[in-house]
Amino acid sequence: MGLLCYGPLDTIYAHVLSAALNPKKCTKAEISRTKQILATILAIREPLVLSDLARLLGLTPFDIRVNLGHIHAVVRVPAPGQDGVVSTFHKSFVDFLTTPGRAPENQLITLSVGHYDLARRCMEVMGSDLHFNISQCKTSYLPNSKQQLATISESLKYSCLNWAHHLTATHDACALLMLLEDFLFQKFLFWLEVLSVVGVIGLTSSIIMRTLTGENTVSRIQIS
Fold this sequence. Notes:
By secondary structure, the protein is mostly helical.
């Protein structure tokens, strides 16, 4: 009965996506990229503005605009020259895309795929951006609140706060163990600095525990 209530909306959503993912008008690569971007938008924990989302995904704002341009009726995409939030307009569209039996098979989005891409990109962003004294702290004898510290980018802040969430929600965490091992052994202290600078150092233990208790994550790393 619940599914029948969504009939008219589902018809609209399927029509919009059919045009955007039409194999006669789009290449396989274009269709795959559009679905990949959609999956990350559905899996992301908090909406990001276009420039920050592009940085997090390793794309350009132009890439995202081009791939989502044909579905602007259901996904909020900032106009050229603007840097607003990228998100779906309504939760019913998310439910449609992720519920077997509602969306056609070629339109279904698997959330764990979005989590996989976000986990990978979070660790890649941390791997490239984290470094010693990233906050440009002048002295360790004064609290952060009494110093003028460098701003942490939103893409790096998101990565530092959410990598464990995406890692434990992915379909194949084992494939990311090399990135996770590099991060834990090479960037761990720099990660802690970011958590301190943004005022959430108290979350450290819960983030680590999420990783330790997740299947196929840190417990599989061989520590020598």
